[in-house]
Structure formats: structure tokens, C-alpha cells
């Protein structure tokens, strides 16, 4: 098969940089890089950055377009890449909850990617590790309820937020909740609930989330309390997770341990005696890799393997 023509749109950003690193490491070399007019003309990873205009994306003859440009730019540009013949994997929130658009974590619902009509949405950086861990537990015992508290790194808010943290004196570090507030909860919390329901295909699953930004550069962590329909011991859960794809057991997961890894670290698996059939666990994941760039590339590779992209 000829090497697929891949466009990375948002290549100068936090997720774009990791996307380029992973594409290179995984042997994809027919790659063009795009960003806004601010970066057009710059050299990046040995390539010239092109401005992602609607006209250029329609004419670019890409097989795959990996977008990480933010929600409003995705809404504007993605349809043009699709019109130009590319299959798009979009990492923004623009299409995730749209009916008919697959929202995919390959280890959880990879087959859904094959139902695409041009766009596949990549989930939020907390939803990906959460569903990766929930899937084997659900298959074994049926999920009844999820409660989750997140500890999200600043790289989840992009390259400029990383620069701000680097420039901050350590005495200024604080917890933040820098998401849109709808009067009841932050949109990050509703995304975690709605995306988890869509990916797990459990539209009524009770999910309660509290999301918090912590002064860590890379690596999102989550404390998870879950209840199952059938009893599941901590030992059984540990065995299931130890055998699950893209999951690695670690006694005490942390963002520093997870940064740079492809797998989701999960540990502190224990009974939650405050609930019937309750379990508690802690996970950590590199939000720029499995939480974003890697998951999107895995979707693209799944499509290429199944010849669902005309390369
Ligand atoms: N960071 C994460 O952990 C994470 C995880 C999952 C999903 N995401 C999603 O991925 C997207 C990007 O996140 P990020 O963290 O990489 O952000 P970022 O560091 O701020 O980078 C944004 C990128 O988008 C480009 N861009 C912005 N507006 C554009 C436009 N109108 N046309 C073309 N390119 C444009 C920027 O180009 P310039 O350099 O030219 O400005 C830059 O390359 C967001 O939708 C975010 O929600 C991020």
C-alpha cells in the first residue's frame, strides 16, 4: 500500500508536536504540517508550516487529516478537509456528541470508527483513559455508577498554558477550574459524562465528575469510584486490568510516571465499602499521548489496517 498522505492541522501546538513525534516514530513519513497564519512559513520538524485555509485543505489531496486546532477552528475547517477527500480525526469538542459521528477509543469501541462518513471524533483527554479502564470492568460485572475527581495538568489547556506555568513562581501555583461554567457545572465535567456514555454505549449511566486543573506540566490523573451490577473484588479487577490493552498496573500512579508512556497507569485498586459492589481506583495518563495524539493516530492506523481510508 502506498504511504498515506497525512495532514497534521494544528502542528505547532502542544498536541501537534506530540503527533509529529509519534508519526515519525511509527514510520509515517508522508506528512504535511498546517497551522494558522501566525505560524505559516515557519519550519517545523524539517517541514514548512502551511496556513490551514479552507481552499488549501480542499485542494491538498490528503488521505488523513489529524486536527488539533480547537473547537471553533475545527468547525470552520474540518468540512473543507472532508470535501477534499480526507478522512478527518478531530480532537476538538466540535463533533464529539454529534449523532452519527463516531467518538472512538480503539480499545473500547474501535469498530465504530468504520461507520464514519468522513469525520471521527477523538474524545476528551480525561474520557480516553477513563473509558480504557472502565471497559474491561464493565464487560466483567456491568457498570452501575461512576464518580470521578480529576487532577488535570496544564498542558491540557495548550502550549501557552504550559508557558505560563513555567514562568510562574512556585509560590503562585494553585488549583484552577478554567473551563466554561454553565451555572451548575463546568463543561469539562459534562463532557466527561456525555462522552463516557456515548463511548461505552450506556446512555443512562450515572456519571458524576469534579474536574480540577493542577500545577503539573504533563499527565492527567483521576480518582474513580465505581459501582458494578455484579460483585467484583479488587483482586478480580486488578487481574482484568492487568490483562487489558493499553493499561499498565502501577501501585501508585502519578503524572510524572505516566508522562511519555503510551499506556494508562492504574493502581490503588481497592474496595469502596461505602457502596454496594463499590470499587475505588486511581489512574494517570499522558494527556498529550493516549489522551490526545496517540489515540487519534491509533484510530487512523485502525482505518488504514481495515482499508477504510483510500491511500
Ligand atoms: N492538550 C491536550 O491535552 C488535549 C487533549 C485532547 C484534545 N485536545 C484538543 O486539541 C486541540 C488543540 O489543543 P492544543 O493543546 O494542542 O492547543 P495549542 O497548544 O493551543 O495549539 C493550537 C494549535 O492550533 C492552531 N490553530 C489555532 N487556530 C487555528 C486556525 N484558525 N487555523 C489553523 N490553525 C489554528 C495553532 O496554530 P498557531 O501556532 O499558528 O497559532 C496551534 O498549532 C483543542 O481542540 C483541544 O481541546 C487537547
Quickly list its features:
13 strands, globular, alpha/beta, binds NADP nicotinamide-adenine-dinucleotide phosphate, 311 residues, seven-stranded mixed sheet
Provide a concise account of the structure shown.
This protein has 311 residues and is α/β, with parallel strands linked by helices. The protein is built from ten helices and 13 strands.
Distance between the termini: 7 Å
If you average the pLDDT, what whole number results?
A: 97
Helical residues, percent: 25-40%
- Ligand types: NADP nicotinamide-adenine-dinucleotide phosphate
Please give the radius of gyration in angstroms: 19 Å
Question: Which parts are unreliable, with pLDDT below 50 for 5 consecutive residues or more?
Answer: none
Order of helices and strands: EHEEEHEHEHEHEHHEEHEHEEH
Count, helices: 10
How would you explain this protein's 3D organization?
- Helix 1 packs across helix 10 and helix 5 packs across helix 7.
- This protein is globular.
- The chain is of the alpha/beta class and 311 residues long.
- It has ten helices and 13 strands.
- NADP nicotinamide-adenine-dinucleotide phosphate binds next to helix 1, helix 3, helix 6 and helix 10.
- The site of NADP nicotinamide-adenine-dinucleotide phosphate has 29 residues, from helix 1, helix 3, helix 6 and helix 10.
